[in-house]
Amino acid sequence: MTLKIGVPSKGRLMEKTFEWFGARGVIMARSGSDREYAGAVDGIEGVELVLLSAGEIPRELAAGRIHLGVTGSDLVRDKLADWSSQVAELAPLGFGHADLVLAVPVSWVDVETVDDLDAAAAAFRRAHGFRLRIATKYHRLVREFLTAQGVADYQLVDSQGATEGTVKNLTAEAIADITSSGETLRANHLKILSDGMMHQSQAVLFAARAADWQPETRRALDTLYSMLAIDARF
Q1: Share of the chain above pLDDT 90, in %
Q2: In the chain, fewer beta carbons within 10 Å around the N or the C end?
Q3: Are 71 and 57 in contact (CB under 8 A)?
Q4: Residues 71-100: b if buried by 16+ CB within 10 A, e if exposed
Q5: Rounded to an integer, what distance in angstroms lies between the CA atom of residue 25 and that of residue 218?
Q6: The pTM is what?
Q7: Sheet holding 174-179, edge to edge
Q8: CA 117 to chain CA centroid, nearest Å
Q9: What superfamily does domain 3-97+202-228 belong to in CATH?
Q10: Is the Cβ–Cβ distance between 186 and 179 less than 8 Å?
Q11: Percent of the chain with pLDDT over 70
Q12: How far apart are CA 38 and CA 51, in angstroms?
C-alpha cells in the first residue's frame, strides 16, 4: 500500500506546496495535462500524490482516503467537527497566511468591537423585525466564535464567493471572511472589528487518524518525518 498525500490541485497553494516539499528532497509535479489532476512524487519510495481542491482535502482526510494532506488550517477547523480527533497537525508550512475576521460597514461609527456588534444586532432586530445577517462560508468557525463571545441575535447567510460585496448588495449587514491584506475589505467600505479576529490561517500538513496505516505506509511516513524534519507524532 502506498502512502497518499493530498495537495491543492492548482494555483499558488499547489506551487508553494511543491516548493516546500521539493526543498526537502521530495519532488512533486503534475503529470499529463492541466485538466487531468494527476501527479507524481520522486525522491521517496511508496508515496503517491493526489491532487484535490483545498476544500476537498479535509473531507478526504476525515474519511481516511488519503493519509496526509496539505490545506488551510481554517478549512480543517470549519469543515470538521472536533477536528483534532480526526486529523493531526504535523507541520505548519509557512505560507498561505490569511486571517478570518469579522467586518462591518465603515459607516457604523459606534460599532468597533464584538460587544458593540451584539448591541447593534439587538437594535437591528427591534428596528427591522429580523436578525442581523452575517455573510460567510465559515459557518462552524463563526458560530463557535460568536457563541463564545455571547452574541446570539444574528443569522448566518451562506456566501461562497464575493463575500465582501454582500453588504453593498444588501444581502447581509456584516461579513466574516478570510483576508490577507484587508484591501478588498477597505475597497468595499468595510472595517474589521478590533477584537474580530477569529482564526489566523496558514497551510498545514495534516495526517488522517482514520487512514489505513499499514506497516509499509508507516515506514514511508517515518522516512518523510526524517526528510521533512518533522518532530510531530500521532
Answers
A1: 88
A2: C
A3: yes
A4: bbbbbbbbbbeebeebbbebbebeebebbb
A5: 19
A6: 0.90
A7: 154-158, 132-136, 174-179, 98-105, 190-201
A8: 25
A9: Periplasmic binding protein-like II (3.40.190.10)
A10: no
A11: 97
A12: 6
How is residue 69 written as a grid cell?
A: 494532506
Grid-cell match 444574528, residue found: 154
Phi, psi for 154 (deg, rounded to 5): -155, 170
3-state secondary structure string across 5-39: EEEECCHHHHHHHHHHHHCCCCEEEEECCCCCCEE
User: What's the pLDDT tens digit per position in 40-79?
Assistant: 899 999 999 999 999 999 999 999 999 999 999 999 999 9
Q: Rounded to whole angstroms, how far apart are CA atoms 38 and 117?
A: 47
Instruction: Spell out the domain ranges in the chain.
Output: 3-97+202-228, 98-201
- Does pLDDT of 38 surpass 70? no
Q: Which three cell numbers stand for residue 79?
A: 469543515
CATH class of 98-201: alpha beta
Place of cell 448588495: 169
Whether 3-97+202-228 and 98-201 share one fold: the answer is: yes
Residues in the chain: 234
The closest of 153, 134, 126 to 196, measured between CA atoms, is: 134
pLDDT tens track for 144-156: 999 999 999 999 9
Give me 31's grid cell.
503529470
Q: Are strands 98-105 and 174-179 parallel, antiparallel or unpaired?
A: antiparallel
